[in-house]
Write a structure and sequence with these properties.
The chain is an alpha+beta fold. The protein has 2 domains: 83 residues, ATP Synthase, domain 1, CATH 2.60.15.10; 45 residues. The chain is built from 2 helices and 7 strands; from the N terminus they run βββββββαα. The protein has a 7-stranded mixed sheet with strand order 2-1-7-6-5-3-4. The chain is elongated, with a radius of gyration of 16 Å. The mean pLDDT is 87.
Length: 133
């Protein structure tokens, strides 16, 4: 069975480069799954996680925004913000609660958007932590 070649790149550095059986990622409008032979595509990423499967081993990244491209059994994830499980600084429940409280009390539109993005990132990191336990 053909394999995928996968690269995960953040603005700071390349995070992953290797072979995989499948990739699952959070696109802007839902989850997308990629297997070898997938049709070429380009999609905008949302905030969530990318899971790279090789056999029974899962490599996980929390991501925020960016793009995913598939062509010729190659998957490239370009993310504005990405962190691997082993590099994650886990979010505390109190931080999420404080951000939710501030969001509920804020009426400034630009501040609300900033808080919503921060909250989405915190939840993605929290989901990543729960998934690997």
């Amino acid at each position: 069975m053909p394999e995928l070649t996968v690269d995960v790149i953040s603005p700071e550095k390349p995070l992953y480069s290797g072979k995989a059986d499948s990739v699952t990622a959070r696109a802007f409008d839902g989850e997308v799954g990629i297997l070898a032979g997938h049709a070429p595509m380009l999609t905008k990423l949302g905030t969530g996680q990318v899971v790279i499967m090789k056999g029974t081993t899962a490599t996980r990244f929390a991501i925020q925004s960016g793009f995913l491209e598939v062509a010729d059994n190659k998957v490239v994830v370009l993310s504005e913000k990405a962190v691997a499980v082993e590099d994650a600084h886990w979010v505390k429940a109190e931080e999420i609660a404080a951000t939710e409280k501030e969001l509920s009390e804020t009426t400034d539109t630009s501040r609300r958007q900033e808080l919503e993005e921060r909250l989405a990132w915190m939840r993605a990191c929290e989901k990543l932590r729960i998934d690997v336990q």
